[in-house]
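Glycoside hydrolase structure dump, as promised
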Amino acid sequence: MRYNTVFTLATMALGFAGEVIAKPNVVIGYYPSWKKQYMPAVDFTKYTHINLGDWFEPQVVTEMHGKGVKVLMSNPTTRSTLLTSMVNHVRDFNLDGIDIDWEYPGRLGNNCNVVDAANDTPNFLKFLQDLRAQFDSTFGTRKKLINLAVRVEPFDVVDYANLMQYDVNGGWNPQTGPNAPFNYEKGKGMQVSFLTAGLGFYGRSTTATVDMTKDPNNQYQNQSSVVPIGDSEDGAWWDSCAGSGGYSGNWQWKHLRDQGILTSPTTAAAPWVRKFDPISQTPWLFNPNTKIFISYDDPQSLKVKVDYAAAKGLGGAMVWSVNMDYNNELMNVIQAWPGNGDHLNSQRQYFLGPGTSSVPITTSAQVTTSASATTSAPATTSTTGGSGPVAGGPCSSPGAYQCATTTGKNPAYFICNNGAWLQQACGSGTACFQSGANIVCNWPSA
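structure tokens r here:
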């Protein structure tokens, strides 16, 4: 599963109403069955749905059904010729549906893909409609599930759309940054209760070119293009399509813990140093000896995301992937999904946007971004075209965000860091859009 995805990179203002929030409808977990030799014992009773890879043993489905879990096959491509084989596969293996992970309609995604920017999305919708029709005619109306891993409008023929809310920053960027900053992206054209918040049980490592402990409140610092080896399961890879290879740099949560990087969920073992960024609401680790930087999620950061998703009425959570937890330290946060209004009974701290400080959210509070946050970015001429800040130019509001241009076609954006604008870029295939004092990486404007 590839993850470059669409996110709100700066947190949006929160507005809470006093309604009671139910427990999550779904907790969907991806089970990477191709990594059988690394699969630990997983408590599947904590999940409602499991998405399997293309290969799996039939007894796995029986085992999961015995625990009350629905099982879907997760397929990375969608072509019209797959319709019959998908229906047959669901029937033959007694599956509960299909999870489709096409990355991405109208976007390259992988160098070996054939892209039709004008027709991929409508063709995808037609494929989903045909698959729904075949499922309904074969098994009965809505008896089988169709789920998507999305960066696109999820369409009303699917059951759940799993928002892949990770891999915002990594070795492809010139600076270090959070793998999965706190964000919320409401899917277009879909009822919010059908969306699930995608949570990564892993982090990404890169190599900084400076000692980040000398500027410990800044996780955006220059990095090398060479990605270091990650945890004990990482290994060299080669992408024949891209003509390049290397290491993923990935660190699964279980290996951050069992390989001694973290001696507790919030304590790093020397020489590692742990910091928690109040803007992206994520922890990060740095080793001053090797200059390796790791951005990841832990129980503290996941709680922020889970509380927010519950408050906004999302249907539940999606986990990539079920084999990466350690003693259920991360899953327990999801299982504590706020219910019965308890998220409103105690004050929570959230970062509201650039230029503001964290404030408590209480019952029926309506919070908006402060005026100072909306007027912090200068209107200077950008080297990337249009109106916007200049890389290295002066800025006065630490943590302020601004797109390089207002065209909706440019991936570049800027962060006010130590009095100067630091240039960053949205993920591959996306562009920066300004939303008040916040920015959104989304599909480029037509």
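The two ends are 27 Å apart (CA to CA).
lmk if u need the other ones
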